[in-house]
Each structure stands twice: as C-alpha cells, then as structure tokens.
TrEMBL record:
Residues 8-28 have a biased composition (Low complexity). It comes from Ziziphus jujuba var. spinosa. One of its GO terms (molecular function) is protein-disulfide reductase activity. The lineage of its organism: Eukaryota, Viridiplantae, Streptophyta, Embryophyta, Tracheophyta. This is Thiol-disulfide oxidoreductase DCC. Pfam families: DCC1-like (PF04134). Residues 1-44 are annotated as: Disordered.
Length: 198
C-alpha cells in the first residue's frame, strides 16, 4: 500500500530506464492543489473535482478522442493478457495528478502520449510506446528492442504520425472508450467517464 500522494506500488528502477529531468519532483507535490476545498461546495461538485491521490504504476495517459490512439489502446488491451497496463483519458480530471507529478500539461500529452511507469519514472512519445510494448508477452515485447535506435529518429517518426492523426482518422467529441464498455475495466478513470456520460 502506497503513501498518500505516492504510488500504489513500485516498478522497474530508474537506473535502468530513461527519465525526464522533471521527474525528480517530490511525490507529495502531486496533491498540493487539492488541499484547499470550499466547504460550501455541494457534494456532487466535490465528487467530480476529487482526483486520485495514490498514483498507480504503468498508466498510459492518452488522447481519448483520437481514433488512431483508441485503436492502439484496444490493440494493447487485447495483447496484454496479464493485464499489466492501465489507461486514462487525457480529457478526464483523473489524469491531472499524473500530469502534475510528471511536470507536463495537456498540450504536451496531446503531442506525445504519456506512460507513467512508476515513482519518478515516466516516458513520452516513441520511448513511451516501446516501454509499453516491453510489458506485453512475446512476440510483442520483442519490438521493444527498437529502443536501440536513436531517440531523435524514433521520435521523428512518432511526431510525423501524431501530427497527422486527426487528418487521417478524425476525432470524436467524447472519449471513444465509452463506445466499448468492455474496455472500461482497464481504465482508472472509468467512474468519471461513466458519470460524465450520464
């Protein structure tokens, strides 16, 4: 069981993985903005504003209205037989603590999706995709060996696709996972998504 504002459990150590410079922020700073709550606020508004203060490891935060991204998420869920990877739509408030912990904003994640692997350890773009693949069973995990390619080259390919994804496959007005409720059990923001839909 993790500390408040920390991770529920630990994964791989940072010594063997890439780490963004901003990942050294204190874990406790994740919920700093949640301390001042208006006592006069209604219970319904509080329910919607409260976000998790215990961060889970191996969470993919992605553009939930992107058709191409949604297809990728569906593929990972089907391949992830051991259910190691969890997901969160960028458009949900549940994503906020993860963004703050990693020192990124929504525009950053719209450009390159975020994989929060563990305490002080997160990745974006092509590195995030390959780290996700490393948790899948063979033969998919073998693709993570593409990490040996230079990061600028990998990210150039990633950015080329990311910048054109809406033009190629379009976008939805709402998080696409709501169209397939079988996937929702893998989403840490499922309660918020269902509440917003209602």
């Amino acid at each position: 069981m993790g500390l408040r504002g920390g991770f529920a459990s630990s994964t791989a150590t940072a010594a063997s993985q890439s780490q963004s410079p901003t990942a050294t922020a204190e874990v406790a700073s994740v919920d700093d903005e949640e301390e001042d709550v208006d006592p006069a606020a209604s219970s319904s508004s509080l329910a919607k504003a409260v976000t998790p203060t215990i961060l889970q490891p191996r969470v993919v935060v992605y553009d939930g209205v992107c058709h191409l991204c949604h297809r990728g998420v569906k593929w990972v869920i089907q391949a992830d037989k051991h259910r190691k990877i969890k997901f969160c739509c960028l458009q949900s408030q549940t994503a906020d603590p993860y963004l703050r912990f990693c020192g990124v904003d929504r525009q950053d994640v719209l450009a390159r999706f975020l994989f929060v692997e563990g305490p002080g350890l997160y990745h974006q773009g092509s590195t995030a995709a390959l780290r996700v693949l490393s948790y899948l069973p063979l033969p998919y995990s073998a693709l993570s060996t593409l990490m040996l390619l230079p990061t600028p080259l990998r990210d150039a390919v990633y950015d080329y696709v990311a910048k054109r994804r809406y033009h190629w496959l379009g976008k939805s007005q709402h998080c696409l996972v709501l169209q397939d409720k079988r996937l929702l059990e893998r989403f840490i923001d499922r309660e918020e998504l269902m509440m917003d839909r209602d």
